Amino acid sequence: AVVRSGGMEIEADLADLAPAEIPAHDRSPRPDRRFPDLARNAERELVVVGMRVEEALDRVKSYINEALLSDLEEVRIVHGMGTGALRKAVEGFLRAHPSVASIRPGGKGEGGSGATVVRLTE
């Protein structure tokens, strides 16, 4: 058998191997399923103006995940006005996202129809 530990490899006969006996108090605790090291201080706004729909949706997906990890309750996605294709795609994605509680167009001082305000679930 080849035993690997760290960066070393050792060849040993199977008969020479036995399960390790680790006292219960020396065992590592179960890993935490939360990912605090991934949580960031996400910005409250993502700008996707001028991007293609596919690229923008990839960014929005990552951004929503980051906002959730940062415990943000509300964020704004600025997609611009243009033809409306980007707004429609972003809104469609957000409506289907399980962690999005609600969406609304930006109000005065929030970008108007060129932005979407997203309320995230708790």
State the end-to-end distance.
Answer: 50 Å
Written as H for each helix and E for each strand, in order along the chain, the element string is EEEHEHEE
Mean pLDDT: 84
Number of DSSP E strands: 6
Strand order of the largest sheet: 3-4-6-5
What structural category arises from helix and sheet content?
alpha+beta
Percent of residues in helices comes to 10-25%
Name its key features:
122 residues; alpha+beta
Structure description:
This protein is an alpha+beta fold and 122 residues long. 24% of the residues lie in helices and 23% in strands. The protein has helices spanning 53-69, 85-96; strands at 2-5, 8-11, 45-47, 74-78, 100-105, 115-120. The mean pLDDT is 84.
What's the helix and strand layout?
Blueprint: E1 2-5, E2 8-11, E3 45-47, H1 53-69, E4 74-78, H2 85-96, E5 100-105, E6 115-120
Parallel strand pairs: 3-4
Antiparallel strand pairs: 1-2, 4-6, 5-6
Helix pairs in contact: 1-2
Briefly say what this structure is.
By secondary structure, the protein is an alpha+beta fold. The protein is built from two helices and six strands. The chain is elongated and about 75 Å long.
